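Order emerges. One example.
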Amino acid sequence: MWVCVHCSNKGFPEGELCMEYKNILFEEIGGVALITLNRPKAFNTFNGALADELLDAVVTCSSTDSIRAVVLTGAGKCFCAGGDVKEFSDNMDQIGAHLTRLTGVIHSAILRLQGMPKLVITAVNGMAAGGGMSLALAGDLVYAHASARFTMAYTNIGASPDGGASFMLPRLVGLRRAFELVVENPILSTEQAKQWGLINDVISGSETDFREEILRRASVLASGPTQAYARVKQLLYRSYGKTLESQLRYEAMCIIECSYTKDFKEGLAAFAEKRSPVFIGS
């Protein structure tokens, strides 16, 4: 019997939710949460409702013990084309208040994605533009279908970047290329994005092949030593702006914490017995 991760109601077929999202799809598949932005006719652009639902789903992922890895992707041919420009136009008389709320919710979701003690894969299935590219970069691991494309696009409508792009881009590609991406708005292929260090890998094949490969990789992560992964995530993100001395202290604290876990004991036993470890995430 399947249990809805949001409200613990029982009896729903796997892949269905009693929580009625309208702008995203949410599934739990063998310890992997799959969040799909689901406004394909609007290129999965962010309106207020989509932002609210994404934040809700991310909070659920962060607080649900049975979820050990998270995948974020888009429905249709586009990952996410950024903000809903039509909604911007409809709210021009109060655009400042509208953007304050919208960016507040999206930024909360991004902070949760990067702060949760679980690895997050962004699976870029198509165009990632503007805030969609920012969202793609929020993953701990970023995989893209061969057909995907990346562009900042903000300055094309007279806007500056949001969604953490101004933080991530200089760290990933350097200051000069960050300026190029944000000011000149080139459209990068997946091979270019990989060469520049924006993504981890390019996956070819059909849409079904892409989904299956993403879920296979996520399943491997979900069955791994997730307590150790959580500390790896803390260490790497925390390293920004820290001194070597403070980072060494934090590394010592984290490895000591790992040593008290059941997974650490299992890892040592499996090594001694020359077998594959079976991690349980505790």
Notes: Residues 2-222 form a domain with the 2-enoyl-CoA Hydratase; Chain A, domain 1 fold (CATH 3.90.226.10). Residues 54 and 77 are 19 Å apart (CA to CA). The chain has two domains: 2-222, 226-273.
